[in-house]
Amino acid sequence: MGTVPPLSYSGFRAYSECPLRWKLMYIDRLPETPRGYFSFGRSIHSALEELVKPVAERSPAALTVVPGGKVQRTLRDFDEAPAEPEPASAGPGAAIMNLEQLLEVYRRVWVSEGYLSPEDEKRNFDLGAELLRRYHALFQAAPPNAVAVEQHLDAEIDGIRIHGIVDRIDETPKGGLEVLDYKTSKELSWQDARTSDQLTLYQLLVEKNYPKAVEALTLYHFRTLTPLRTEPRSVEEVGDLSTRLGEVVDGIRSDVHEPRPGPYCTRCDFRAICPEWKEVPTAERRNVEDLVERYADLKRQGEGLRQEMEAVASELHAVSDRLGVHRLPGRGAIVYRRKETHWVFPAEQVLPVLQDAGLLPRVSRLDSDQVARLLQDSKVPVDVRRSLKSRGSRQAEWALRFEGNGRRRTSKDD
Q: In the chain, where are the structural domains located?
């Protein structure tokens, strides 16, 4: 593909789950089947946006948005006294719509696609209305210090372009920022918030666009009206997401779009065209069955041979140690015992160096062999290579090199 478009959380998740599904959605633009739970979530989000937006716009610490939808990368009035309020917005509750107005908004923005029946749609509509009534009472009693709603943000991390729309950004009592994402799923736990890649990505977006620190990350479980609040992500956690974003971008850039079967296959709309789920034609079935059985037999034989070869290799190592020899001749072949070394790089040691040098996209999950290849790359600055080398160590292991009958093979054993 060459240039990879900015990656959203949805795109990142889709590719991580199944590269083929990502291609069908984002390149081939095949539509997915509407689902009621998606429509329910969109409806609630739209109603909440209209409820909270006036409060955020009239907040003294509102995030300034300049014409064209671009976000100005400052927080207005965070470090100065707030401007005098306009008379029309005076009073803590002046900007809050009443309950009837909110329910009218809800009726207007309701999305009716994807429900199983008119009765199913009505049940969900009534549930949403009841939840909004309860939420409005809490909102009116203690309005949040919201400073941005449905905020579109773009950023770049380690050469990877990312973007997203953050449901809400609040100012904390300490003057920092809280990133909040509404969830309408049936069940949600604090652990979900603690491990949410979406919240981590939003933290990155907010920190890249605004000078104030993110002090909290929250999934707001709307069905129970419960804010599941967590601490911001650590440098290591951000680095882990950056690595996985890099892997996704590398895959997209390399046109790697193979299917990846998993539990999400049951809800996939593209099974009919996915090679993992297409049925073998009846005319070919007998031939395929025969080939599969033959392959399975050979695989079982190969596994037995592998285990036997490892056992013999261990005996050869023991004989070599006992006799003090490294050249072990056979009748038609020779085995040489050699000690080989390889680099080992502790992830926590090399992560800061790779991040500062923008090299994380080239290293999958901080694999030591890939880091070692950077040491031989003349395009990597010398000081970076020296820094990486100082954080690694060389470890040795014995290997058996086999020569005979015109063949050369290697067997390594720790």
A: 9-253
